[in-house]
Amino acid sequence: MPLKNTEKEAAALKPQPEAPLRALYKKTFGREPEAFEPLKADGSARRLFRMKDGSRSVIGAFGPDKLENRAFLEFSRHFRAEKLPVPEIYAADQPQGVYLEEDLGSTTLFEYLGAERKEGDIPLQVMGCYKKVLEWLPRFQAQASRGLDLSFCYPRASFDRQSIMWDLNYFKYYFLKLAKIPFNEQKLEDDFVRFTDFLLEAPADYFLYRDFQSRNIMLRGGEPWFIDYQGGRRGAPHYDLASLLYDAKADLPPETRSVLRKHYLEASGQKPAEFMRHYHAFVYIRIMQAMGAYGLRGFYEGKTHFLNSVPYAVRNIEWLLRNAELEVKLPELTAAFKRIAASSYLRQFGKTRLGLTVRITSFSFKNGLPLDEKGHGGGFVFDCRALPNPGRYEAYANLTGRDKPVIDFLKKEPEVSRYLDSVFAITDMSVENYLSRNFTSLMVNFGCTGGRHRSVYCAEALAARVKAKYGARVELNHREFPGLAK
Q: Please, where are the H alpha helices in 172-235?
């Protein structure tokens, strides 16, 4: 049996692009580069180098896939002719798989977001950059698609049924199976067909950038420049917007996504109602494609840093399950998503802290129990009707559990203190457990006869404790008196 190559021997077998890149540089600029610096690798097989002499800095690229290289080079030339901000191509040696392109610097939109962000908020200057990016996106999608030779697209000329099924099976085999998420294979395949049919209903006569995310957008002088569109093809415009706004580790808040989505719709002239019909389906397919990549690189190839994005993707799926109902019914795929959202294992890769929201509600039993509209399925309902009732006294009848006379009344009653001590003990256990498991939502409900005095007081007390003790985000809702929580 032949011996396996050692790591050193395996490295020696890899293509060595330095010599052809140096030769191309000298042929193009008339002198040798004085510096040849490898750049950090991404998830692809392509390798990038910063090459410098005394008067210039350029990026040297080596790609082992010559058809992918050709797509990038041809698209770059077309986009430059359309006056889009993409790197200039100085020279290429396609048989050697190398080319030289403009050096756009080292600051990506993702890095800028991380440097400027404080406590999860998106600063105005970063929002400004995102809005500029979204003003360019329709020009790539509509303007640049005119006259683009789609014969250079690789591996497909359009995001068609075959492309979609590749992505769905990528998700199935490299994420669901390797993450040990159970599913019925035939039922899932049936859902895949229905899902694909629905996606293909969307208008698709646009250039689909394919990997339109914050690491593929460079910032130079405060303006965005665009790279890594070699996977582009004809497709629906929804996909690229989903790629940017649901970029996992960028972790944009839902409110920010909404603002940026509206900005894109205004910039592109898309009709909101028509666009939104298919939008969240494209969000799902983009997340699934990304999770397939995380599984391939992380679970299968052992590059575990790729798994650090998984908790963010899980939270995005959780948000979609709560907030985005699709027209098409996908029971088995939805069940798989719910298993992903419920997984403690998938939430704990890396040092990611997703943040817990405790949703606290007061209510009247006369109007029924609160519904878990968020779909998380975890939490408590506490019955406050055994406590002394201020509502029986005329002086308190028109007040609520937030008014000082009612607060003073309930604080004097020993039963109320004992009750809250018990509530705090049991909810503390869940809050601490959820924080340790990177769960993002816990529901706690307090009910009484009218939903006015005791339940409001207890809900307020728990909200204050959770904020003070754990720093968790609290959503406080007094169902029968919604104005109280504002």
A: 185-199
Q: Which domain holds residue 61?
A: 17-102
Q: How many residues does this entry show for the chain?
A: 486
Q: In what order do the strands lie in the sheet with 379-383?
A: 379-383, 441-448, 357-364, 473-478
428-438, pLDDT tens digit by residue? 999 999 988 88
Residues 147 and 270 in one domain: yes
Nearest of 145, 125, 175 to residue 349 by alpha carbon:
175
Domain check: are 161 and 183 in the same one? Answer: yes
| Model pLDDT for residues 270-324, shown as the tens digit of each residue | 999 999 999 999 999 999 999 999 999 999 999 888 999 999 999 999 999 989 9
φ, ψ of residue 111 in degrees (nearest 5):
-65, -40
Q: What is the pLDDT of residues 341-390, one digit of tens each?
A: 988 889 888 777 778 889 999 999 999 998 876 555 578 999 999 999 99
pTM for the model stands at 0.81
Amino acid at 98: V
Kindly state whether residue 3 falls inside one of the protein's structural domains.
Answer: no
Would the CA dihedral through 404, 409, 411, 415 be positive or negative? negative
Backbone angles phi, psi at 42, to 5 degrees: -100, -155
Residue 114 and residue 97 share a domain: no
Q: Which helix (H) or strand (E) holds 170?
A: helix 161-171
Per-residue buried b or exposed e for 457-479, using 16+ beta carbons within 10 Å of the residue's own CB? bbbbbbbebbeeebebebebbbb
Q: What are phi and psi of 83, to 5 degrees?
A: 60, 35
Site of tokens 């193009």: 28
Nearest-5° Cα angle at 141, 47 to 290: 50
H helix runs in 295-350, sequence order: 310-323, 331-341
Tally Cβ neighbours within 10 Å of residue 157.
Answer: 15
Buried b (16+ CB within 10 A) or exposed e, 283-296: bbbbbbbbbbbbbb
Q: Are residues 290 and 330 in the same domain?
A: yes
Beta strand ranges found along 249-322 (DSSP E): none
